[in-house]
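Ticket 4471: requesting a sanity check on a complex prediction with protoporphyrin IX containing FE. Repro inputs:
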Amino acid sequence: RWGKTSSNVKINRLPGAQLPKGSWSLPWIGETIAFYSQGPYKFYSQHIARYGRIFRTHLMGNPTIVTSTPEAARFVLATRHKSFPAFYSPSVSRLLSINPSAAVSQEMPPGKILKTIHDSMHFELLRDKIAKIDRITRWVLSSWDKQPFVVTYQEAKKLAFHAVLDSIAGMAPSPETMKLMDDFGYVIKGMGTSMPFNIPGTSYHMALEKGQQVFEALSPVVKKRRLEKSQEKCTLDLLMEIENANGEKISDDSLQSHLCGLMFAGFHSSAVLFVWLVKFLGENQEILQQVKVSALKSHLFSKLHIMHQKFITIVIVLYSTCSQAEQDTIRMGKISPEDPLSWTDIINMPLTSTVFQETLRMASIVPFLTRRAKEDINYEGIQIPKSWLVHVGIQNFHLGPEYHKDPLKFDPSRFQAPAKPAAFLPFGNGASMCPGRELVKFEALVFVHYLVTTYSWERIGSEQGIDHWPIPTVKGGLPIKVAKLNECVT
Ligand code: HEM
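Returned structure tokens:
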């Protein structure tokens, strides 16, 4: 029953199952260099063309099975998730000193913590946060008035960081939060390095230092929040309330760690999503037209403002029936230009919601997920040996023609009909599915609303490609020339 693979990895052969085809390349290093230099999507694509959608490889000293079908994804992430616990490389675990699922806690059952995090981001609770997300978005975008151009990522990260920070720790933007954001930026940078060695001068070393500083800076935040007893509950408040079987509450240190884990999970991913939204909307003017407001119309409406309410309502109804520009319609429905978006507005953005979904599919911000097999498993005649890593290649089925017609075309209308089951997993699946998915959706809808109703923009410079690590983002951060809409009308 025991056999050796060609890379000298000992496995317990399961009857009726075979290792998938694949290659090991060099001892220990395996195919790590190609994986990091090409990025996961290209690396997997080349292997899929040679070996099929399930293959084996060797990465960073780990024999690995890569699966890139929706069915296998469901099997690994949902149906048999207990056999496939999440895996974080030692360098990432060390950087965060916690895994992002907040599952590592000596003092509290991890399930309880995770449930609290999920509860704190429940759809219902998020309703009350729309006004704050609105305020943060306006705060970020209003600074564009004074700038002829901006680097989208720099702006997106302000928005994403403060929206997450408000939701998890109830913190409003301030010089302290800006410093936290900058420091946390180094942690993200360290996460993306292919050389995670703690040597002074390296980005990994810097990331470890800055991560520690962020952790320490959160100490007074946690202490203050304990005393405050705020009416509006954030994740931190709910985590403070839980108790273990001995009636003990969670310690400050653990709370700080959980906040770091949540920042890691929610900050960069959301910021990167906003950049992709700006890119795809900018490159698809027809779709942009459907979601944006014409400056002329908004100008006209501000004049109509002083007229009778009933007349305004008729104009809105007529306009919305003969146009698909949904953000325009929403803005025109406001009595004052300062009126924030409401919950009703958010649920009245079906077109922008499909833009959000299509952006997630095309960009595949989390292109793959990693698990480690806890036991030998036979998946449809394919052996997944115990302790091997399993990569679930989400991006490769997001962009697979078998699952999405014309997959490289940005076409939000494909989401007017439900996607094939499990062929669209931007937030994962099963037990570890992202609890921040509704939060980030609301952030994205509010962002698109103010973006398209306030500004026009144009990319500066040429296409620079993609930075693959730690997650795929637009190289150079997408510098854009911006103009306020009612000032640029010709
Ligand atoms: C575009 C933005 C985002 C994307 C694409 C994304 C994607 C994902 C994915 C794919 C997972 C599953 C990981 C796995 O199964 O191993 C995940 C987990 C998680 N995400 Fe997100 N996420 C985003 C934003 C957020 C936000 C805003 C938060 C909240 C602060 C958040 C908090 C979490 C947490 C705590 C987990 C771990 C859940 C668990 O282990 O049960 N995410 N996310």
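Notes from triage: Residues 196 and 447 are 34 Å apart (CA to CA). Leaving this open until the requester confirms.
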